[in-house]
Structures are given as C-alpha cells and as structure tokens.
Amino acid sequence: MTKNILPLTVTALLLAGCVSAPEARAPARQPAPVERTAASFPSRPAPAPIRGLDGVIGKDANAIKRLFGEPRLDVVEVYGRKLQFVGKPCILDAFLYPERKGGREVVTYVDARRSDGAAVDRAACIEALQRR
C-alpha cells in the first residue's frame, strides 16, 4: 500500500503546485460624479462695423425692405432667413439670424455678386441698390 500512496501523494503535490490562489482585487471605485451646468445659448459677438455695411448689418427685415424694396427671394430656413435683392449692377443676399434665443432676426452677414456669379464689393452693391 505504501507503494500506491507514494505516487498518489507526489501527483497530488504536483497538481497542487499548478493551482494558484485567487487574485486579491481592490474594490472597484466609482468615479466621482461630474458636475455640469446647463449650457447657455452662446451670445453672438457684435460684428465690427464695415464701412458701407453698417447701414445694413444689425437691421431687421422691415428696415432692409425699406432700404431696397421687396426682395426677389425670401427664404425662411430652420435657424434664420435669407432675403435676396436684385438690381442691374448686382445681387445682394442678406442673411438674418436671431439676436439671441427667441430674439428678433437681424442681418448678420451680406453677400454680393454680379448676375454671372463674379464677386462684387458688398458696400458698393448696397450703395448701388439704394440709389435705384
């Protein structure tokens, strides 16, 4: 019997050496909650007045219509509006966006071009359209 016990004991010891103890894990830490504040509607910086454009930038649709007459196009978009005025010398697009959330729409940018698409000085186009 001693003969049978010795190989079994050796085998048991060898197998016991192959088994490792379970890893000691540090308790999982929950990350600290992140404090967030509600984002406010970003205020749009006032554009620097550009000579010749200051009579248009910041004006509402009614004021622009008084300057140039009825627009050829009046496109209402999701966040703003585009008014297009056409004259012999040029085409003027005036882009209106709310001053602030829920505020009135005012002209924030204008673009000018000839009927063939070539760029035109914006201030010169405004002046030409006002003279007609």
Molecular structure report:
By secondary structure, the protein is of the alpha+beta class. The protein is 27% helix and 20% strand. The protein has helices at residues 2-18, 61-68, 122-131; strands at 73-76, 81-86, 91-98, 105-113. The longest helix has 17 residues, at 2-18. The chain is rod-shaped and about 120 Å long. The protein starts with a helix and ends with a helix. The mean pLDDT is 79.
Q: Which helices and strands occur, and which strands form pairs?
A:
Blueprint: H1 2-18, H2 61-68, E1 73-76, E2 81-86, E3 91-98, E4 105-113, H3 122-131
Antiparallel strand pairs: 1-2, 2-3, 3-4
Search tags:
about 130 residues; alpha+beta; 4-stranded antiparallel β-sheet; 3 helices; 4 strands; about 25% helix
For the termini, the CA-CA separation is 122 Å
SS-derived structural category: alpha+beta
Q: Give the C-alpha Rg.
A: 38 Å
Average pLDDT figure: 79
DSSP strand tally: 4
Low-confidence stretches: none
Number of helices: 3
Shape verdict: rod-shaped
The main pleated sheet reads as: 4 strands, antiparallel
- Portion of residues in helices? 25-40%
Q: Give the amount of beta strand, in percent.
A: 15-25%
**SSE order, as H and E?**
HHEEEEH
Order of strands across the biggest sheet? 1-2-3-4
